[in-house]
Amino acid sequence: MNADPDCIFCKIVAGQIPAKKVFEDEELIAFHDIHPWAPVHVLIIPRVHIASLADVVPDHDALLGRLLGLAPRLMKQLGVHNGFRTVVNTGRDGGQEVQHLHMHVLGGPRPWLRG
Ligand code: AMP
Ligand code: ZN
């Protein structure tokens, strides 16, 4: 399945709900988290609906590599020069609330609200 009509991040991909986008290309979108835990808090997601990191298959390896590699570029672009944190919550025990694969990228001066 390429998109899930009930998935909030698929709706962002489709432009059906707004997001403060900081990056997009043919495979990935990045946007500011609506409830930031840190001065800079963005989410990087694939356009394709993959429910979680537990659902990836070897065909996704290149996509995952690009997703991770985008984080340092975005942090530079957003003025984060003192390190950042990447988080992928997976499944119920992993605390995942939105069932569309996403990576949190958090940066900026501490203290942070969370993380
Ligand atoms: P997780 O617990 O890893 O599934 O995190 C989901 C994240 O998505 C949370 O940090 C939410 O604040 C964020 N979020 C949910 N809905 C939206 C939205 N419409 N736009 C931006 N971020 C969102
Ligand atoms: Zn989705």
Q: What descriptive keywords fit this protein?
A:
115 residues, alpha+beta, 5-stranded antiparallel sheet, 2 helices, globular, binds adenosine monophosphate, binds zinc ion
Describe the structure.
With 115 residues, the chain is an alpha+beta fold. It is built from two helices and five strands; from the N terminus they run αβββαββ. It has a five-stranded antiparallel beta sheet, covered by helices on one side. Strand 2 (28-32) and strand 3 (40-46) form a beta hairpin. The termini are far apart. The model has no long low-confidence stretch (mean pLDDT 97). Zinc ion binds at residues 4, 7, 9-10, 49, 100.
Task: Offer a concise description of the structure.
It is built from two helices and five strands. With 115 residues, the chain is of the alpha+beta class. Strands 1-2-3-5-4 form a five-stranded antiparallel beta sheet, with helices on one face.
Radius of gyration: 14 Å
What fraction of the residues are assigned to beta strands by DSSP? 15-25%
Number of strands: 5
Count of DSSP H/I helices: 2
Query: Judging from the principal axes of the Cα atoms, what is the shape?
Result: globular
Low-confidence stretches: none
Label the structural class.
alpha+beta
Distance between the termini: 32 Å
Distinct compounds present: adenosine monophosphate, zinc ion
Strand order of the largest sheet: 1-2-3-5-4
Strand count, sense and barrel status of the largest sheet are:
5 strands, antiparallel
Order of helices and strands: HEEEHEE
Query: Percent range for helical residues?
Result: 10-25%
Mean pLDDT equals 97
